[in-house]
Amino acid sequence: MNLQNFEENINEVILARGKKYYDQDHIEKLEEVNSNHYIFQVSGTYDYTVHIFLTDTGEMKDTYCDCPYDQGEFCKHQVAAFYALRYEKGRKEEKTESTQLVIQENKSELESILSRLNKQELLKIIIDIADEHALIEKRLLARYTPVKDEVESSKKLIKEYIKQYKRRGFIQWNEVYEALQGANITLEKAEEKIAESDALRAVQLSMIVLSSVVEMLQFCDDSNGYVGDVIRGSLNMIHQAVDIHANSLDEKQKENLYLSIMKEAMRPYYDDWSEWRIDLLRSCIPLCDTDKRRIKLNKLLEDMLKTVKSDAWSDKYETQAIKLLQLQLIEQLEGKEKGLKFIYSNLQYSDFRERAILHLLEEKKFKEVVQLCEEGIKIDRQYRGIIYEWKKYQLEAFEGLGDIDKQKEIMVSFLYDNRYEYYSRLKQLFSANEWPEFLEEIVKTFKEDRYAPSAYVEILKEEKMSSHLLEYCSKNLDSIKQLYPYLVDEYFDEVNKLFIKYIELQSEQSGDRKKYRNICSLIKLYKKVCGTTHFQMLIDHLKEEYKRRPTFIDELNKISS
Q1: Taking the alpha carbons of 159, 161, 162, 165 in that order, is the dihedral positive or negative?
Q2: Cα–Cα dist 519/529, whole Å
Q3: What is the pLDDT of residue 312?
Q4: pTM assigned to the model
Q5: Where are the beta strands (DSSP E) in 370-521?
Q6: Which of 116, 320, 338, 478 could bridge to 349 as Cys pair (CB 3.0-4.6 Å)?
Q7: Distance between CA 522 and CA 503 in Å, rounded?
Q8: What share of the chain is helix, strand, coil (3-state, %, to 5)?
C-alpha cells in the first residue's frame, strides 16, 4: 500500500472516520524518528500512538496503533495519521525542491553581486545584518575580536546563547544543544589557540566554558547529556593545552597558568562536582616543576582529604581520586620507588591495590599477588565486578605458579558466574579421560539452577549434548527459536511440538495487531523449520481456534496466501 493512494485499500467507513479525525485536528504530535519512521499522537476519547514505516518509494512496510480496535486491518487513528503524513511529506518535498532551486540560483547570483562591491559596501552589509541579528553579531565579535578582548567577548557570547534559550529561569531538554552553541564556538577557538602554542589563552577560554556550563546545570534539563559532553570537552582541552605546551613555557607563563587553574578549581560551584575539581587539578601536575607549586598543590590535596569524612562508596572513590593525584606528583618529582611506597601504603583503595598487583606480576612474585588478591576479595566483597578483577589476577598468578587445581577452581567459579569465555581454557586443564566425568558434574550443577545462564546453553551446544538442549527448550519454550538448528535433525517431532506449543501459548496471550504480527513472524520461521505441510495444518488450526479475532485472521491470511 502506497501513501499516495492508501484510500484504495481501506474500508469506506473507517476511511471516513479517519478523515473526519484528520479534518478536526486530532493529530496532536508528529515525530520523525528517521526518514522512513514516523510516530503520531492522535487524540480522542483517549490518546493513542500510531507508528508508520515507509520505504523510500512511499510504500508502507508496516503500521500499527496501540488502540484496542480489533475489527479490521486499519483503525481511524491510523487513517488520520496517513492523511497527516501525506500532507506533511508533500509540503516538505514542495518546499525542498523550490528552496534548493532558489538557493542554487541565489548563491551564484549573490557571489556575483558581492564580488563587485567595494570594502565599505561589504562592511555596511555585515553591520546591517549584525544589527538585525544579535547572536550573529556576538558570533562575529567572538570570532574576530582582537586577542586582548577575546576572553571577555567569548564570555559574553556564551551567556547570550544561554540567555536566549532560558525561559522562566529554565532551559528545556530540547533546547540545551542550541543554548550551548556559544560554548562550542569558544572551545573551537581554544583548540585554535593550542595549535598556535598559546596554552594560557586556550586554558582561559576553556575555563570560561567550564564555569558557565557547570553553572548552567543548575537550571537546565540535561537528559541528552550535552552539558556533560561540553564539560568533558573543556577539561580535555585544558589537559591538552598543558600537556603539549608545559615544557615550552617560561617560568612566568607556567606560574600564571598554574594559578589560573588552581583559582578556577576552588570556586564554590565545584563543591557538588568534586570529580571535575579533581580533574582540573590534574592539569596542574605537569606545571609542578618547582617545590613551591608542588607543595601548594599537595597541601590543597591534603586539605581536600580532610573534608572527606564518610565511609560511603562515593566518598571512598573521591579519596582514591585525590590520592591518585598525589601519586602522580610523587612519581613525577620523586621517582618510581617513592611512588611504589605510596602505593603500598594505600592498598585499601582498589586502584592502588591493582597497581601493586601489576608491579608484582611484572616481578613474577606470584605468591604475593595471590595474597593481595585474597585481601582485596575480603575488602571488596560487596562489589562483584571488583572481585572478578581480583580473581582474574589470581588466575594469572596461579598460572605463573603452575597450580592446576587452583586454576580449575577459579575458572569453574567463572563458568558458574556465566563467563563462558573460560570454558575452553578450563577444558584444556583436563585429560581426555578426566573430562567426561567433570563435564557431567558441570551439567548437573547447571540443571539444578532454576534459571540456568547462557553459559549452560553454550556448553551444551559446544559438546553436542542435544538431549539436554531439548530438555532446556522444553522448560524455556522461547529458546526453540534460537536452538532448533541443534535439534531438528535428531528430534524433528519434538521440535515440531515445541514450536506449536510456543505459538499456541503466544496466540492465547495476544490481543492486538502488533502482537499478532510477531506471532506470524514466528509462524514463518516454523514453516522454514518444519515444512509447508505442518505450517498449513497449524494455520488451519489457528484460524478455527481464533475465528472470532478478525485482526488475527487477517494477519494469518497474509502469510498463508
Answers
A1: positive
A2: 15
A3: 60
A4: 0.68
A5: none
A6: 320
A7: 7
A8: 75, 5, 20
